[in-house]
Write a structure and sequence with these properties.
Largest sheet: 7 strands, mixed
CATH class: Alpha Beta
Shape: globular
Number of domains: 1
CATH architecture: Roll
Structural class: alpha+beta
Number of helices: 4
Oligomer: single chain
CATH topology: Nuclear Transport Factor 2, Chain: A
Number of strands: 7
Order of helices and strands: HHEEHEEEEHE
Helix content: 25-40%
Strand content: 35-45%
Length: 147
């Protein structure tokens, strides 16, 4: 027998997945404004295993401005390896080949965990190598602080 709590938990799960997918699709579509609209008011990014964090609308907006102008156009290939979710977030495992200023390319495998908030994405935890983090965050990387 399904209880009210089970139905609520099911809706919450559906909402988490919906918010995470909406955020991911906005990024894939290259829509900076829509991506930002999927975030909570005080979003954060964490980089692991380095244990670094930025937080706040202004710094996250600077990151996304950099990302859409300088990072996203340099993806040469991406592969989705899977998606998983639980009450703490939605996990995407991916690989990306990126092209650098000198024309060289590098391959990176990473995990991104989107953390749902009340109405949008509260934050994101990126697990990957330092080279990818520096490439992705560019000038914003120096604003990260130890957790």
């Amino acid at each position: 027998m399904t209880t009210t709590e089970d139905r609520t938990r099911g809706r919450d799960r559906q909402q988490r997945i919906k918010r995470a997918l909406e955020h991911a699709y906005c990024e894939i579509a290259g829509d900076e404004a829509a991506t930002l609209a999927t975030l909570e008011d005080d979003p954060y990014f964490e980089i692991h295993p380095a244990g670094l964090r930025i937080q706040g609308r202004a710094v996250v907006e600077r990151y996304y401005a950099h990302y859409f102008a300088n990072v996203r156009p340099r993806y040469r290939a991406t592969t989705d390896h899977g998606m998983w979710e639980n009450e703490d977030g939605v996990v995407f495992e991916m690989s990306a080949t990126v092209e650098h200023d000198d024309g060289s390319r590098s391959d990176h495998r990473f995990i991104a965990i989107l953390v749902p908030g009340e109405t949008g994405i509260a934050g994101e935890r990126l697990y990957g190598d330092e080279a990818l983090a520096r490439f992705m965050f560019g000038p914003v990387y120096d604003e990260f602080r130890p957790i």
